[in-house]
Amino acid sequence: MIEPSDDGLAAAFAACRPGALGEMTGMRVGTDEATIAAAFAAHRPDGIEVAYRAYGAGLYALACHLLHDANDAQDCVHDALLRAWQRPDAYRPERGALRPFLMACVRNEALTRLRHAARHTRIEKRVAHDDHRSYEFEIGDPVARGRLRNALASLPDEQLAALSLAYFGNLSHTEIASRLGVPLGTIKSRLSLGLRKLAVLLPQPETTAS
User: Which of 41, 82, 107, 209 lies 20 to 30 Å (CA to CA) from residue 146?
Assistant: First the structure.
């Protein structure tokens, strides 16, 4: 299979950004649906580019409707279209029109992303509300224990989950990222934000000079 050129794909994807849709020109294959479908099914580099230009607005709108996030929607359309173009026999013109096929691909990709996001959220909630509790009650001072409980409860679930795994679970940043299924940089950011908030909520006791 001939891979699409980086410049060609970049131009097509840029043309489909919000605000630029409808300014699509310079297609290298015919713009009628049958020609677009034939080029896409043949895995021609200009076939994926022209398909993106022709149907990108509708694909992006569908992804936005399902994901409620512009950046995620753009990635969703990009990944779904490229995967469909690369997979042998994924699309054949005799099976139906290209546009509804691509809409189904984007919908499936968006739903997969939503399922993954929901799974990650469930993991974070479970870690956030379970892992720290046994350690919290090792604090003998009931006042300090209450302050810690309140401070931890005020953290977002994603920050509490990361802190719980780091300090109560004794996991490395890389291990936390693997367990929660999020990028390492995101874990570092969550830990930093969580620690800053705890520093404000749990000020160090003043010491008196001897």
Answer: 209
